[in-house]
Amino acid sequence: MSLTYLPEHARATLLALDLAHKEAKNLRYGQTTLFALPINLAWVQSLSCQAEVAEKVEAFVSRFGRLQDHIGEKLLPRLAALFGENSKPLLDTLAIAEKAGWLPSADAFIAARKLRNALVHEYMHDAQNFLESLLAAQQACHMFFDIVEITQAQIIDLGLQQTGANS
C-alpha cells in the first residue's frame, strides 16, 4: 500500500483551505460590490471626494491582499507539504503549485503581488496606473478563486473531510 498524501499535514491543509474559503467569500463580496460601479479614470480621480466609495476600494484592496498572502504563505505551502513537497521560499512553492496544476502561472501570481503594491500606493499619485491596476486585480481575483477551488477538488479527491463551512 502506498500513501497518496502525508496524513500528518492533512489538518493544517484543511484549516488553511477553510480560511481560504472564508477569505475568498469576503473578497468576492468586495469585488462584486465595487465593480458594480462604473469604474473609469474620472471615477478614480474623484475618489478623494467620495469617502464611501474610497472605503469600498480599501476593503477590496485589503481583502485582495489578505487572500493572496494566505494562498502564497499558507494554502499552497501546506498543500505542497501534504503531497510531500517541502519548500520555504515563495518562488519554490509557486513553481511546485504550477507544476502540479494548482496554479495556472507562477508569473501571474507574482504579477498579482505587484498589483497589490500599486493598489495600496498609486491612487493618491497616479490615477491612470491605479485604474489599470484595479482592473487587473479584478481579473486576478478569478485566479485566486480558482486556486481555492482546485485545492478543494484535491481535498475531495483524497477523501479528506473539510474542517468547517466553506460557503
- Seen as an oligomer or otherwise, the chain set is single chain
Count of distinct strands: 0
- By helix and strand content, what is the structural category? mainly alpha
Distance, first to last CA: 35 Å
Mean pLDDT, rounded to whole units?
92
- Number of folding domains? 1
How is the biggest beta sheet arranged? none
Low-confidence stretches: none
Helical proportion? Answer: over 70%
Structural commentary:
The chain is an all-alpha fold and 167 residues long. It has one domain. Helices cover 72% and strands 0% of the residues. The protein has six helices and no strands. Helix 3 packs antiparallel against helix 5, helix 3 runs parallel beside helix 6 and helix 5 crosses helix 6. The longest helix has 32 residues. The protein is elongated and about 60 Å long.
Which key phrases capture this entry?
elongated; 167 residues; mainly alpha
In short:
The chain is mainly α and 167 residues long.
List the helices and strands and how they pair.
Elements: H1 10-34, H2 41-45, H3 51-82, H4 90-100, H5 106-121, H6 127-158
Helix pairs in contact: 1-3, 1-6, 3-4, 3-5, 3-6, 5-6
